[in-house]
Amino acid sequence: MIDTHCHLQDRAFEEDRAEVIERAREAGVAAMITVGVDLADSRAAVETARHYGLSAAVGVHPHEAASAPHELADELTKLLHEDGVVALGEIGLDYYYDRSPRDVQISVLREQLRIARDRSIPVIFHQRDAFDEFTRILREEWRPAMRGVVHCFTGTPAQARVYCDEFGLFLGIGGVLTFPKAESVRDAVRDVGVGALVLETDCPYLAPVPKRGKRNEPAYVAHTAAKLAGLLALPIDEVVSATDANALTLFGMKKVSDT
Ligand SMILES: [Zn+2]
To answer: Taking the mean position of all CA atoms in its chain, how far away is CA 241?
Structure first.
């Protein structure tokens, strides 16, 4: 399995990061992408990835858009050159929390999308309560050759279709899939099928049932994979190999060994 979205540099893992990563590997998580939310956190993600042999993503989350420096493009470009960096993210819009003003979220998203486009880097998106604005911006900035994932997908089947069919995006599926109220996410997943999905945890947040409410960690991606297999009526091996293949295609990562 590949955990395509975790935050292992987060201070929630300060005490036992090495054990968490070891448990993940024992549970069959062969690769993990640890994702930054601002420039300092992205630097920490690169360091953590280097230290533990993981992959990293670097970018400025919409919550942190207001703190993005004027030299964002230069700083990000430097980080994108670091070893182990496979994506630009997480970037996007969050109109649920509105922690940064919306016009700033939009301009920081556009700036980062242009960097991804110019450098042919895959993108990890965060989108909450901003579907219309988000897709309007993508219609202007996105190009068919670009690759990306809408992480922590929580939308409707119709929204999933727009992401997958119009933009060729993958959907990042995590613990929310296992939550009792997430019927529309399960409908969307059944509708688009395993070919459009990658697995993630978003740890330390959003632990899947039966770990819900606890600190999440990459090993728990197995619970989401099992839920997905049940939902799609597929053997778990098939779900794992399909989502792994999708992640490798999306991020251009090297094939990881099965052992
Ligand atoms: Zn995240």
So the answer is: 18
Instruction: Read off the CATH number of the domain in which 85 is found.
Output: 3.20.20.140
Q: 158 C-alpha to center of ligand 1: Å?
A: 23
Residue 57 in domain: yes
> What pLDDT digit, counting tens, does each position of 145-186 carry?
999 999 999 999 999 999 999 999 999 999 999 999 999 999
Element (H, E) at 90: strand 85-94
**Residue 14 domain-assigned (yes or no):** yes
- CA 126 to ligand 1 centroid distance, Å: 7
Ligand 1 midpoint to CA 37 (Å) = 8
Q: How far is the CA of 205 from the centre of ligand 1 (A)?
A: 8
Q: Rounded to the nearest whole angstrom, what is the distance from the C-alpha of residue 75 to the centroid of ligand 1?
A: 20
Q: Tell me, what DSSP letter sits at residue 165?
A: I
**Domains of the chain: total:** 1
Give the residue numbers spanning the domain of 79: 2-251
Q: How would you classify residue 53: left for phi > 0, otherwise alpha for psi between -120 and 50, otherwise beta?
A: left
Determine the distance from the C-alpha atom of residue 64 to the mean position of all C-alpha atoms in its chain, rounded to a whole number.
17
Q: How far does residue 239's CA lie from ligand 1's centre (Å)? A: 22
φ, ψ for residue 95, nearest 5 deg: -95, 5
Q: How far is the CA of 94 from the centre of ligand 1 (A)?
A: 12
pLDDT-derived band at 257, boundaries 50, 70, 90: very low
Q: Give mean pLDDT, residues 96-100.
A: 95
Mean pLDDT of 98-114: 97
Q: Is residue 213 part of a domain?
A: yes
Per-residue pLDDT tens over the stretch 116-152: 999 999 999 999 999 999 999 999 999 999 999 999 9
